[in-house]
Amino acid sequence: MQSRFPMERKASIDQTILSPGTVSINVQGAFIDDELPSRPPTPSDDGAQHDTDIRLPNHKAVVSHVALDIGGSLAKLVYFSREPNSKELGGRLNFLKFETDRIDQCLEFVKGLQDEFQLQNGSRSQKMSIMATGGGAYKFYEDMKRILGIEVLREDEMDCLIMGLDFFIAEIPREVFTYSDDNPMHFQEPRADIYPYLLVNIGSGVSIIKVSGRRQFERIGGTSLGGGTLWGLLSLLTGARTFDDMLRMAEVGDNGTVDMLVGDIYGADYSKIGLKSTTIASSFGKVFKMKRQGENQAEDHGGLSHENREDGNDASESQPTFKKEDISRSLLYAVSNNIGQIAYLQSEKHDLEHIYFGGSFIRGHHQTIQTLSYAINFWSNGEKKAYFLRHEGYLGSVGAFLKRQPRNWGRRNSFEEYPVIKPTMQQREE
Description:
430 residues; alpha+beta; seven-stranded mixed sheet; 13 helices; disordered C terminus
């Protein structure tokens, strides 16, 4: 049987899954593999974008499943593999994402994992299973069964989100961090006393979840203005084709050419109420004013006359132009500021100090993290903390992956007798 994976990728999949059954994950000595990334960070020919792996150097047992969280914009895949070309014990958790619109590429990748599983274990072995969560676990359920021909176990979305976040907080060093201008990535040590907290999960939309304990969580709010909003509007306004392209444009943009700032109104800071001159008073607030000025100038110079239009001097030539980079930055700030303030208001209402931001909208992007952190710090007068994760988009898929684990597997028994939880509202906008 010919492998459907190229040789360079086959080495990373060999010995991935050796026999079926549940497995106790050994997280002792786990670390995020920063120095030797096993895969490129950009999308490959198979449509996958590979994110940083987590090394599990002391894990010996076999793993027989993969996990997939299929949201409205992205499908996030997690699977375990042994170290390629190495006799050392241990392996790694691999993190990949695909655009949901190209779910066929994602399923083809999983099919490749399945084929390698069969090659390693023989025709008499039990088939690999897949743990699926997110809305796509239902939308694409029949497609997964038909294409993959393996057991597909669907797990509750909210339950997986919380289980994945608990794992990262309690078990993985240098995963959770806070932001400040002086220290943009201040890592938090893994800890067991994690409750209560607020999870703000930002995907295509936003869900805000109050977590009171291992058996208690409730979706208390959200907003439809999330990553899908930014992606949709910027695709119309800038012509950008990917979310990462939009973020790259925002990094070099100047929102001050588009937004009306406090300094534009007062000429300086408004110190009495703590507003800097660079604070946004109105998102896209300069656009109408500048367009009106351009129209007036065109009228003053006859730009709207029939003769000028025939000469090619259309009034549009006198209209102000806005750079797509500036538009991208302005809209990113608008969406992020809105999410940050809603998160603060929910944390204040429910008396929660610790606020974790997750979801694929963030993607480790500096401006997004800075804006969300600033909003929480500003509105709470420094009394509440905003936390971020390096694998923020994989909470659901990691939670689904962990669903195959027995009791007492963590260093801190952080998932002992983890229950099947029935949240108040089970839908997450992602």
